[in-house]
Specification:
Blueprint lengths: L3 E6 L2 E6 L14 E8 L8 H8 L4 E5 L11 E8 L8 E6 L11 E4 L12 E13 L11
Antiparallel strand pairs: 1-2, 3-5, 3-8, 4-5, 6-7, 6-8
Length: 148
């Protein structure tokens, strides 16, 4: 049985294939909700896309509590994340900026967990960003407490 079909009108063919949103996905249980603080992050890199790239390897971003456009203080970016294992979140990541652009969303920012090796180009700037934990909320218990 074929789940495909097509329609042709005015010389244009449109092909239909049964689509499922989870067909090319993988599942993971993100059971821990963490409060993270990104410290020592350059102010020109304060962008929600860059924040997601920094934590995206080990966490899923829930919310950013710091106003990134007009922050009251510029020491840390405060955020909530979900993760499968808080121990796997790196404590320090490296941001490498490869040119001077005002558009922070460009691919000119490299996020790595190890410091960059020696580079030749004078327009490359690298800085480290620390991730500090304040709270880890464990998964909800599946057993109910019994009362005496």
């Amino acid at each position: 049985m074929s789940l495909q079909g097509f329609a042709k009108r005015h010389g244009i063919e449109i092909h239909f294939v049964k689509w499922r949103s989870l067909a090319n996905c993988f599942g993971v249980s993100l059971l821990f909700r963490d409060r993270l603080y990104l410290d020592s992050m350059p102010r020109h890199a304060w962008d929600d896309d860059i924040v997601e790239r920094i934590i995206g390897r080990r966490c899923a971003l829930e919310s950013i509590d710091t106003d990134l456009l007009h922050p009251a203080e510029t020491k840390t970016i405060d955020l909530w994340t979900w993760t499968a294992n808080p121990s796997l979140i790196p404590k320090k990541v490296w941001l490498t900026f490869t040119n001077r652009t005002k558009d922070a969303k460009l691919q000119s920012i490299l996020v790595t967990e190890t410091p960059p090796e020696h580079w030749q180009a004078p327009s490359i700037l690298s800085s480290s960003t620390w991730m500090k934990f304040m709270t880890t909320l464990p998964p909800p218990s599946t057993t109910k407490a019994t009362s005496p």
